[in-house]
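Thread title: Can someone regenerate the structure for this chain?

I was given the following input by a collaborator and told the matching structure tokens would be attached. They weren't. Posting the sequence so someone can regenerate them.
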Amino acid sequence: MQEMDELYKDCPTHTNTYEVDGVKHKVVSHFVGDRDINDVMLGYAFNKVVNEMMHRVPCSDTE
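Best answer:
Regenerated them for you:
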């Protein structure tokens, strides 16, 4: 873990604190740029359509 911290120390980060069962957890996200945003957005869109077609989530109204 220390090696990864050193490797990505100059990359932007975002910190969130979550509370689960009364215990606070601090999560630090490191943005290292290893993913293509187009692939990520395509994956989100595809999963949303499949979930709507399978009636797992409510359909979004476009009107």
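Residues 16 and 42 are 26 Å apart (CA to CA).
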